[in-house]
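Title: Request for sanity check on TLDc domain-containing protein prediction

Description:
We are preparing a figure and want to confirm that the structure record we downloaded matches what your pipeline produces today. Could someone re-run it with the sequence below and paste the raw structure tokens into this thread? We only need the token string, no images.
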Amino acid sequence: MKIEIEEKWKKEVEDMKPIFDKYGEQYQKDLEYEQQMKDFDKNFPQFADSEIIKDIEYVKKLQEWINDNDFFSKMKKGFSAKRDGFDSENWHKVVDGKGKTLVIIKTKDNFIFGGFTQVGFNGDTGDINDSNAFIFSLRNDKGDRIPAKFTYKQNRAIYSGLIYGPLFGEGIRLVSNLQPGYSDFGYSYNLPNGITYGTNEAKSYLAGSYKSWVVDEVETYFI
């Protein structure tokens, strides 16, 4: 009887081993992720309180595209829609006159994209020229798109008006309450190779749809 009980116990332990191993692996992964986040916040303090940028590859791309280590190392999150309100006037009060400005947007469908301007926004000044401005895509809804930068082409680089939030050409346009969003990608900024302006593919590239995409967060960085 004792032998039978011992054998039964051994079998139960063996049957449970895959479960123990699975939880052990997950625990180790959790520890590694926690350490990665600590290292991330230490190495990139400008994104320590970001709800959007937590991927080192995204950081590397932004650093490469902006190509200004002084600005990149000193910039801070000056505006967060979740913290400061989904309101274009609030956004302008914080952002206007700051010069170089990085805008990062995340939609409810997990698209991450944004724009950068060397000149910055400034009240109700209308169209603003900036040949060095660009917009970018970091993530689509499935996470399978390679991060990419799109340079300024023609017409307006950015538009500054109190009834609008961030507006990069017609590629990214947020209205008075910073949503819903609108994207007519290709009008002012170069499209990816093989995509034609005016097509559904172009209009949905950045945010998943041409208009009425729902904004989850808008973060704006400057010195």
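Thanks, this matches our download. The chain has a mean pLDDT of 89.
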